[in-house]
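Morning F.,

Quick status update on the modeling queue. The single chain you submitted on Monday has been processed. Sequence for confirmation:
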Amino acid sequence: MEDKKVQERLKQQVLDIMEDENNPQIKKNKSKNYNKKNNVKKKKHRLLKAFGMILLSLLLIVVLAVGTKPGRSIIYKLASKFVYSNIQKPSPKGEDNKEVINKREPSKDVVHEDYVVNYLIFGIEKIGGAKNTDAMLIVSLNTKDGKIKLTSLLRDSYVEIPGHKANKLNSAYSRGGVELLIDTIEKNYMIPISGYASVDFKAFESLVDLLGGVTIELGKDEAEYLNKTNYISEKSNRNVVAGKNKLNGNQVMGYVRVRKVKTLGGANYDYGRVVRQQRALTAMFDSLMSSKNIFKILSITKEGLGYVTTDLNQPQIENMLELVVENKMTTLDSFRIPVDGAYEAPKKYNGVGYPIILDWETNLIELYKFIYGYSDEEAKAVLATIQ
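Structure tokens below.
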């Protein structure tokens, strides 16, 4: 009996289904629902396909841009525009005339090599109305050995200053601005300068603070000296310790100016100051690149460029970027002039207090070996032709 009831219910369900299938309205509704779902699926498929094509196109553009020289040229052009639009330009008049270097006639009394381009980087110390260059570095791009070479010129080096009495190298800027400073470097070190970039002390502090500070290791003597002198101008910042410190801009500014105590490692006086400057620049670079956020790096770079002044135009910046990337310049070598054992440091010389008197022949030979990759014999031969 129970089986018969089950069979009747199943029979009725089959009849109901058949009746629904034969009902035009129900068929129409089902067809609508099916088409609606099918259209949604088709739209999703089209969107996914379009999105995939966009991703593929972008990937292709990146591959072409990075993988081919014409593609990379586009990147260099865009990057140089970014730099040039955000960097400070010298005023068209006065001591920082931007036409000074770009229209400079090549000197015959310097060492020219097509595979090397030299740029001057300097920091300006403005104290009591004076304007001296506290740090001067030559950045050389050597496409022959694929290296960036950084040469520090000691500020107290006794040099010939065109149109003026001989004096310390850092006094040239105060006498005739960047034009005289470059003339002085070319005359004494006999290397051509293709452009410059400068930053003053206040801007340097701002750059460090923009990075959120930098980590630098201090020796015991350095820490004690910084905490009891006015090298760190803000008293509230005189709280550094021996060992690793996260230093702000004001503290780093004090650190790179110290001369009278040894660095961590033993360098002293101007040599110690050069070591500190190079350590600070390295720490700043490391701080910038430690960020994994490309947008943060671009933001910091954009604002940081506003503290730097250069006479380089956009094509020159583009060319510099291309030289570095195309020649895979991933190595930075450091050097210093004068070299050990090739100078004297009297208390006074020709009325100038505590100058550094260079043995020019020895130092220039070593400079050319470093920048141009000459052998000792080649450097001596080149120097003999221009002296």
